[in-house]
Amino acid sequence: MNYDHDVINEDEKYKIVAENTSDIIVLVDNEAIVRYVSPSFQQTLGYTIKEYEGMDAFDIIPPEDRDRVRSSHFQAIQTKTPVVLEYRLIHSQGSIIHVEARVKPVLDRDGNVKYVVAVVRDITERKKTEQLLENILESVNAAVWSTEKDFSYYTFCSESIEKISGIPRREIMFKPIRLHDHIHPDDNEMLMGEVKNSLDRGIPVNKVIRFIHVEGETRWGRLIVHPYMDNTGTIERFDGIILDITELKRSELALEESEQRYKSLFENNLDGVFSIDLNGYFVNANQAFEKITGIKIDQLPDRCFIGLIYDEDHMSVYHILSEVMKKQEPRDVECRIIRSGYGEKIVNITFVPIFLSGELNGVHGIVKDITERKREEMELIQSEERYKSLQQSINRFSNDLANVMKVTELENRLIEEVKKVLPVNSVSIEELPRGHESVLRNMNEIWIKIAEKEQPVYLRIEINQSLLKIEEEWLETAVHYVTILYDNLQLIEDLMKRLEDMVTNNQTPKWMLKLLFKLSEKERALLSSDLHDSVLQDLIIWYRKLESLRSSTSFSEETHGKLIQIEEGLLDAIHQIRITCNELRPPFLLKMGLVESLKSLFSYARMFSNYEIEFSSMNLENPLHEDQILGIYRIVQELLNNASKHSKASKVTMKLTGYEEHIHFSYSDNGVGMDLSVFEGSFKHMGIAGIKNRVLSLEGEVEIKSAPQEGFHVNIIVPTTTPQKGDHYGNIIG
After folding, report:
1. Cβ neighbours around 263 below 10 Å, total
2. What string of DSSP letters covers 370-400?
3. What phi and psi, each to the nearest 5 degrees, are found at residue 78?
4. Is residue 5 over pLDDT 50?
């Protein structure tokens, strides 16, 4: 009886604990069906115990957390080991509750899992606090963490660790060593050595480390770690914070680089550079300034800048210096300085304001010694001999260019002459990449385009002041001579190199044929343009004047008749010039395409020929480039010319056919034909050699057949793409 009483007391005790604890105790079976839930469940989540018991335990878990929690539940059953996890629950009113659950399987006598007990604690307020901390850390770009004494796992680590280190928090919570994978090797060595030794002795650490998790980029963090010790001095844990100081470090490095660059420019500048305070007293200067002025640098402190200037120039220099300080903008001035024992020196000084924290702090001066140049300018103004010397120079230069055979010689000769004749600081030939034309607006430089290579080629002249008008005219004339020669010399050098390569490789220079035909077409186009724009327009004007005169003035019948004859003659001349222009440069050839242009040519030829023209085209799918269209068009023109002059044919047949990556053109007439071997000289006169060369320049092949009384026949194959070595078209021609 006493035993039963003890048992009842024991059960009562468990009941009191279960019903009065603030944590929720849930008992579920293997199917995750709730078999028991403590009373605190209703207080925390708003559901009644009757509502929840018998439900699937996961029904009140949000869908985005459900699979993860179910997986942990299954893991506890499979491994028969407890698990701890955090997730969310849906309150009966729809709000979200954050909880931490400790899940433990309950085994039966056979060692199988019969139930699972979960002790669930409401951690919503803690989560809010953690989120507030995360927000604070995010705003200051910092991460807070705490580890046990052996650094085997984090007891706390803020989510902001990922932004700083590049590693997600969940990856390093139980493997803090992973953080070292993203730290610079040198800093890792320091952490594992010096820093570890200090922490082991309970000494706080404050170090800057580098993160390398972003490829090609270094980020900096300040690591602050404090050991936490109990009352016996034993380390229990380590608390730390990592501050992202990347922008600060970059600013420091940029400032350091800027200071070094400024120091280098200041000390190594070929021009004299100095600084003065707002009262006009020297602060410092470089070696070039000492050389220009003759004043030792150690003698400059407490010396006034104006005392260096000639008395007559005091007012102008003082005025410019005052403007620089007032308007806070750079200004230039030319003046004379006193150089003890060496007389005066004429210098150009550029004053530049110095700012510190947005306030004017002093003035920089850049001194250029222009004594010699100014003397030359004054001598030029005073003497007419300067003009004569420039004229002689340009004559000599133009004569010398006749003997220049290379581009480099031409460039060197131009640089030499400019240096010799003009008052310049430096002269060079520069290839300026397109898109960098902004440098052409430099006030201290003259850039003149002289040629085109892969990039535009410029003559760059550095000056201190504008050239005189006669100097500008001399320079313009010299550059004009060079520009005329430049392209030709460049082309000749390129041709010579390619010819040498052809001779070395024993190849037929087909490109030469292409070049000659291009030059020929260019001349045809120029001639056509000249005829159309000058002669033809003049004839039309005179025709209209004559027509107007005849219509508005009374003449005798004989004079009137002669004027009409003159008008008709002018119309014939205008018509003939138009025909000539069309033949020299067929209008709309490239726009209309080869087939339509040929049809137009045949329509015109039929008006003047005594033979029938039959033309067909098919399968012309591959596009032709300009050289191919123009080349085939010229070949057809030559064949029609031969047919009109020599063949005595009554019918001419032409076909244009596309064949894979080639185009096949055939010509055939029923004329008198000829013996090819006997009349070889005549073929050249007839233009047959020109046809062969045209085809060769197009990388094609031509076959000509003819015999007395058997007509004249031509087959031409031209690739629509560049043929590879070894390609042959004989099978098509046959």
Report:
1. 10
2. -HHHHHHHHHHHH-THHHHHHHHHHHHHHHH
3. -70, -45
4. no
